[in-house]
Amino acid sequence: MTSTQESYDLAILGSGSTAFAAAVRATELGKSVVMTEDRTLGGTCLNRGCLPSKNLIGAAHIVYTSAHPRYAGLQATPMTFNLPALVEQKDELIRTYRQQHYASLLAHDGMPGPRVVYGHAALVDPHTVEVQAADGSLRHLKGEQILIATGSSPSIPTLAGLAETPYLTSDLLSSREDMGSDELPDTLLIAGGGYIALELGQMFSRFGAQVTLLAPSERILKDYEPEISQALTSILRQERIQVVTGVQVQQVSGDSERVQVAALVRGARRRFQANKLLLATGRRPNTSGIGLERVGVRLDAQGAVEVDRSLRTSVPHIWAAGDVIGHEVGSQMATPVGAQQGGIAASNALADAGQVVDLMVIPRAVFTDPPLGVVGLTEAQAQARGLESESSTVSMDVVPRASIIHDTRGLIKMVLERESRRVLGVSMLGVSAEEVINEAAMALRFHATVDDFINLIHVYPTMAEALKIVAISFSRDVSNLSCCAS
Length: 486
Fold this sequence. Notes:
FAD/NAD(P)-binding domain, seven-stranded mixed sheet, five-stranded parallel sheet, 13 helices
């Protein structure tokens, strides 16, 4: 077995968005940097998460709207499609994006940049990462500073019969190598009630599968505003997606043709069956098998790497960022969060920048149709923090743009701190919510009040006017506003 040793200013475990942000920052600082990767360059978001799912969700939207036009005078024209061809264009998009935004940033043709070593990586001492390649060869990468940026993976529950039962994961990868993601099942069971379950459930349904969602909580999106959960449940059911809540899955069984799920639903025993089972039961930090315990890096109760607000671990020269830190210091598992943290970690490790993470304002989106955008606190979260708050909720049918385009599905809710009138949180379910929520996030970042939303002039007619209208609703009846929400 061959072995080589190399030295770098920064050695990074991982090559996803967090790792690349750190690597680029290290290169800007004139430092040498190496990343490791045991699968495919670019990590989960590029290869198995954000990019591929949003690409296929967009295709499913076209298929659905062709058969369900919203305008009188437009004839429904059901669209045929070729799923293997859709999967191939998705794969080509990923290959192109990987080359343009990841591979092209690596050292090449004499140009400086980060390097990548492929294979399974683990810390063998506080400064050394051992990488074992597929051919068994070993490389030892010495890092003056170390960054853990190994991301997360689908969380697989412990269920009777699961080890013997084929299933899909939220990465759209199969537990069995002979099952591909270009297969469209006639019927599909999805275990989960979070954003991944909803996005993929609606996508598969629009492609023609009969989908049943088995949500473990009493409502989908249990940590979101209850009005949002109820409205989205109604929308999904109108699309003939079966949404079952309060499901405790007890046992699974089946083969490549049919899967059965035995569960308790509010105390009653029920059985569900379908051609395929997709597990969308959350994600877990990738911290096992990489030598963290060996070098003294502490993990929290959920298996995430413990860090302080500078992203330093329990070992002073070892840092961690992105999904691998879970919810430490108020973090969230999201690509832009990890990318920001990667840059901060590299700056702190290599330039003693003294930067700390500020995670008070993190906009998030669920790419259902209509999409959901949220930022800040829900009403329940504000109350749990002891804040005196109030809220207002309005339907999308009072937003001119929504009526103009004949899509009034959804609602918007705003939460205020009662005394200061400062906006604490916004949740919007409706057309373009994933874009509109960025305006709300900017407002929260600068501590905007409800009057700031009211007094801001918006382009008419746009969905962003929903923010102004819900702000007005705290003091006026918005069902009788004149043009331009005045």
